[in-house]
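User: I'm putting together a small comparison set for a docking exercise, and I want a reference complex before I start. The sequence is below, and the ligand is alpha-D-glucopyranuronic acid. Could you produce the 3D structure with the ligand included, as structure tokens?
Assistant: Of course. I'll restate your input first, then give the structure tokens for the complex.
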Amino acid sequence: MSRFKGYLFFLLTVFVFALNAQDSLDASDFFDRPPQTYNTPDKLLGWIDSRNLTSLNGEWSYIVDPMNNGLPESSFFGGFPKNKTQKTGMELIEYNFETAAKISIPGAWNAADQQLFFYRGPVWLFKKFDYSKQGNQLTHIYFEGSNFTTKIFLNGQSVGEFKGGYVPFNFDITDYVKEGENILLVLTDNTLNKSTVPTNKTDWWPWGGLIGDVYLIETPQTFILNAFVQLDSETFDKALLKVQLSEPLQNSTVTITIPELKFQQSFLTDSSGSIAEEISFNPILWSPDNPKLYKVNISNSSDFITDQIGFRSIHINGQQIFLNGKQIKFKGISMHAEPIAEAGPAFSKNHFKKLLKTAKDLNTNFVRAAHYPYSRHLAKTADEIGLMLWEEVPVYWNIDWTNPETFTIAKNQISRLVQRDWNRSSVVVWSVANETPFSPNRMDFLNNLIAEIKLNDETRLTTAALLSGSEDQFKLLVLALALQGTKSEWVNAKEKIIFKSILEQVNFAEDSSLDFSISIDDPLGESLDLISYNEYFGWYYVTFFVDQMQVEEGTLRRLMFEILEDIKITSIYNKPIHISEFGAGAKYGTTGNKIWSEEYQANVYRHQLKMISNNPQIQGITPWILKDFRAMLRPLPGIQDFYNRKGLIDENGNKKEAFMVLQDFYDTQWE
Ligand code: GCU
């Protein structure tokens, strides 16, 4: 009898396999499964540091997956999310996260693993965690930042996907998380292309993976999703309060208290579960010299959130900037989110404390956090130590302006950045772009981003780091250099003849004078509060003229120093100009009057700072850059070694000569 049963079972198995084989062969999708659709994230959870958090930071494991083989839609066997494990030793499984390499999260896998240094592609991150939930709370998973596309799977189920690095996102995982052991798999991919934001061409490193905190957050079924409490930008005793519940719950009583000001007021939500009210109180105003913060509590019947908030006003009037009604200048420095003396991205409070302390050491009151959103720890730290911030999205160089998906990435980045940091007194400027070439499509794209900012926050300044200077304007620079060349004693006879012939070609008399001037007329200026401009007089530009003028680059560099201080920078817009970048490269410890020496870099700073002092419309500067940073565009062996060396300190924190030049300028000049 048992033999018959065995035979019957064998026939049945063959029959089932044949059926499957028939299906798979007919469907001819054996290799190319239809792409899986993924959920998009929920609305951003604000005020997270006061919520019921469980940190998933710490040791994770990872597997590199260059062909995306691990995705369910890519693998006949269901991919990595099934996380199959050996039971009898006979199961064919070609991955194992338990025995895979380990990584500390937050952290970039192309910083942690030297084999991945230049890698641009998918990497799976794995975390097993035990969980037990209190009551009937909702459970969310929150990512502070993940580069650049992220797919989340929990206990084998697809939770969702987020496209666009650097900014926080969260998903409600109440229906996915289990009591006891949970398996979390996150696919991160740092691939960039012509339609991503940024594109694949950037002068900074594409740190990949979970570059920010990862938390489980528990909330009531109906919770306070986010809230905005900031002074009106023109008065100091009125503030705008906006509160949004997670559900459209009407007539929910929401109470705001600021104990130190003995302030308490309650409001009822409208039909959309939101509140928008003006409230009055008299705070000590926040400033870099007095970074006063107040504990602010917001609660309703089921939820309670709290934060430390500073109250200040920032606005412009004509060509001047006003903080709390007092005219100021932005004495700044630019930075990237890379820690001092540590590889990879900056992500922790300690990282930003060290970086911002160094910035304060320069006698700054302002920092440009270029070129993308940083962790929330940056602005929270700046609030506490007293520094104003410019925050920015990576709409960098030439973007795919007409691609709706590209705009969605950028819009997500700016709206999430604003909704996360809109209570940070340190943040005074939002920037929508860096060095984007003019075109009608670029104007539409950026004006829509500016509109997105205004939808969320109208109390801060908007800007973009502009290129400027038409070809004709730069032709004038060639003439100014040629004219200077005919006058300078030290120029040799051969080059003097060349300079004279350049002037003769345009009938420019040798005895005339020419102050080179540049006007920043980018049409985007109409939509911006701050006219920001990147210029590299003393570093770039002359390189482009050498072939055209057939003279030594060293001659042109020396002539540039002779005319730099007299350069005029203006704008057709009656608004403050902010020099968002100037600078020069230097390898720490390199001496001598030559390119890459500390002396040359310090010389560029001395001449630039004199020029800036001579231009009254310039009301802010953020020289490029605080610290040497990783960049694939900078290979020069022995000097750059894939670092951009325009830092005032090197990657280990060693101060270059130019550090002291800027430090002294901010301390003793340019009030
Ligand atoms: C550009 C750009 C920076 C870059 C810098 C440089 O202006 O905005 O991202 O690093 O110049 O050339 O070093």
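Residues 21-26 have pLDDT under 50 and may be disordered. Residues 203, 371, 434-435, 534, 581, 624, 644, 646 surround alpha-D-glucopyranuronic acid (CB under 6 Å).
User: Thanks, that's exactly what I needed.
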